[in-house]
Amino acid sequence: MLERLRKRPLTISELAQPFSMSFAGVAKHIDVLTSAGLVRKVRVAEDGRSYRLELQNSTLNAASQWMEYHRKFWLNKLDNLEAFIEEENHENRSTEDRKKH
Amino acid sequence: MKTEVLKIEKSIKAQPGRLFKAWLKAEDFSRWFLPGTPVSLGAVNIDARPGGHFSIEMLVDGIIRPHEGEYRVIEEPNKLVFTWRSFMTENRDTLVTVLFAAEGEGTRITLIHEQLPDDQAIVQAHTEGWSSILAGLAAWVV
Fold first, then answer.
1. Of the candidates A39, B81, B91, B119, which lies 20 to 30 Å from A58 by C-alpha distance?
2. Alpha carbon distance B23, B25 (integer Å)
3. Which CATH number fits the domain that encloses residue A49?
């Protein structure tokens, strides 16, 4: 359920759908998640009465977000380092070729 | 106690010494750490000695974000340890260890990024809060 919220904000009905649960049952659990600061209710602009639920990234993901961000960050940097070395090898080869001619 | 430690490994076809230098020579470092960043934006300062500071201005989603730290261990060509602080660490110090091990004709790089004790307490609080919610949720979904 939270995985689905991670993708985009959803209404209670949309959230309840795949779980074959009552609207009231879901609403009760949403209250728990909201009071824990994990999700936030956002009014739907179009009708002003219903609302969607949005994941509160700062609390929910403090640990996993840190890991995910830095894993990608460092993997990307190490890939760049490899590319840099290859580029340097290439430059050196070109210089040597020019010397030969 | 749960400790947040991130470990990444990568093999690169180059000698450890050459890779090690690429981390500490500002000119080389800028080329691979900030590729495609206009020179006017990406400022890199490196004081490569134990206790020396570094600062890197990185363009992240159109915003210039400073990344800073201090070198703790410089053991050429095998080990580099530095603190790391950025908007993504909430400007708290974290610790990065980079190990360079000769592997055939290349090098096995192991990068370990860990949070320091103060941060672990914070992360742990978040993780525990989240775990108990998850446990409740799992019971509910089943």
1. B81
2. 6
3. 1.10.10.10
> Within an 8 Å CB–CB cutoff, is residue B25 touching chain A?
no
Nearest Cα of chain B lies from the Cα of A79 at a distance, in angstroms, of: 8
B127–chain A nearest CA distance, Å: 6
Question: Do residues A53 and A72 both lie within one domain?
Answer: no
A-side interface with B, Cβ within 8 Å?
1-2, 19, 29, 32-33, 36, 38, 59-60, 62-63, 66-67, 69-71, 73-75, 77-85
Q: Are residues A11 and A35 in the same domain?
A: yes
Model ipTM value: 0.80
- Which domain does A80 fall in, by range? 61-101
Buried b / exposed e over A50-84, threshold 16 CB at 10 Å, is ebbbebbeebbbbbeebbeebeebbeebbebbbeb
Q: Chain A contacts of B123, Cβ < 8 Å? A: 62-63, 66
Domains of chain B: 7-116 (3.30.530.20)
Number of domains in chain A: 2
User: pLDDT of B87-110, one tens digit each?
Assistant: 888 888 999 999 999 999 999 999
